[in-house]
Amino acid sequence: MRKKAVAIGLVGISLGYGLWRGWETGIERAWQGVFGSPDLGPVEFAALKRRTNPNDALICPRDICSQAQPDAEPPVFPISGDRLRGLVSDVALAEPGTTLVDRGPQQDRYLVRTRLMRFPDTVVVQVFDRGPDESTLALYSRSQIGRSDFGVNRRRIERWVARIGTLAARQQT
Description:
It is built from 3 helices and 5 strands, in the order αβαββββα. The protein is of the alpha+beta class.
């Protein structure tokens, strides 16, 4: 009797997990069918114009994003641009639901999906050298679906910059 209960429990857990994974892939395909590719593409930070909908966030040095009003300015990190780009990748890919979509010569693009409804957000990151061992970055996170993101994009890129700052400080010591 006990073995039968364990077997039924395991089958139930497996079925539940299979249904959840099917939901995730199915809803992702549905969003793509209705709204198109979840990757919103690269950004030209010098010519960037912000959206009128409150579903994006921008952290960028004002001298680079002269056409857009950034939500915040990033710090200048005491590491080279190559090292900073590596830290950005480490921090971004440590976030659940985040994948690298494109690693270009100057920019990296990440696709971040929300946990429950699997809504896609595109985060574009570009690193700028400020000296021999100094660099900064620009991050633009925008939602593909919805009018408002309830501040999710802004909290995400602020969290990334804080974690990058912590890792950069550790590399100094």
